[in-house]
Amino acid sequence: MNFKQCTFLLLSFIFCVFICGLTQNEKVLTVWTNSNSYQKQNINIDSITDGQITGEMFYSLPSQEDRPKVKLIWTDSNIYAFESCRFNVWKWTDNRWDNLYRGKNKGWCISNYFFVKNEIFGFTGKGFWTSQCGLYQFSENTGHWNIISTDHTPEQFYSESSFRIGQDTIISLSGTRVINGLSEYLPILSSHAISINSNSWFDVTFETTQIPILSSIKTGTVFDFKETALIRSGEFNIQIDKKKNQLYFETVKKSELLNSFDLIYNDNEKAIVINDGRIFHIGPKPLHQLKRIGSFIIHDNEKKTANDSIEKEKKSSKLVSFSLIIISLVLILFLIKVVRREKEESVAFRKLKPFFGNTLSSDQLDDILGINSQLNYDSSRAKRSKIIRDLNKESKELYGKELISRVRNEEDSRFINYEIKK
Fold it and tell me: Strand, helix or coil at 304?
């Protein structure tokens, strides 16, 4: 394996690791199809999504006049769209949107959608008369939503805003309950979370002295990143540190207030918002620029150790990262070894590398090695033999095997050919 091959191998490995890391999490885009920006097709969606969502996809989205909000979720391979208060699941296939849902139910509003292990999940739902703390899973095979049985399920809880920690845990920041058509907000200092791996709900409590600021979560917009979550609500920007379960806030400048939305794009690292035609770039800020206002705690309902499912995922993530670092170091060391070997190779050795795996005649070998053709037979033979001995000695020292071996000419056994080994 030469230097170029090793370099290509190392770069390919790093690229694959990087890409695989990204594709574990989906990208999310929410658009209001009744906005002027959408109606006039002024949104450059190719630029916002790096070409993953095209204008053809974007401006042919299914939507209802009375429910103009449409949410798109996608990975590198599949793109789905969801209308507000519909069970429809639209998938982009063959240059069009196809509805995978085979039922006729409607009027049920699912709070949020997630990909978990390439499966579509819906998180809590409500209708006009009631709400349900359901975990829904969509089956492309049957074309229907299934309600997953869960443990410690809260009564008639509907999540108004939520974010995810890792691939498994969904945390609701605030919620409502609908009973007989009457809706009420639940206390802001307590909420719920679910582990999809264990299908079990947990209680969440918020500890803060800044209740008015935390109460803004009820009407806020959540931006979910890999290690943080942001909630923008009026003049407040609340930032959540997922690693340490800490809450921070800052006051938003008047020029950055978001009154209404045309579009929200959100991936692991950043968010882009179009608000009344204006574009805003939103992302987490360094914690030292923010004021800490409290923390949140996840409990299980039997009062055992909190955050078990999250800690397991964090440990798994650390193990994967450590393994990737070790593999990268091994490849780098191997690459360094190859580079050193190539630097030690003689000029004659390098001349023969393009002929690895070939068999050469005496004249061909002499021509490559630069042996003067004007020398008599015995002088050429002696010089060739010395060079072959030196090259085989060099190859053994560098690679543990000889480079050139003598073989009889199959057409005329009186002559010797030379096999250049890989």
Answer: coil
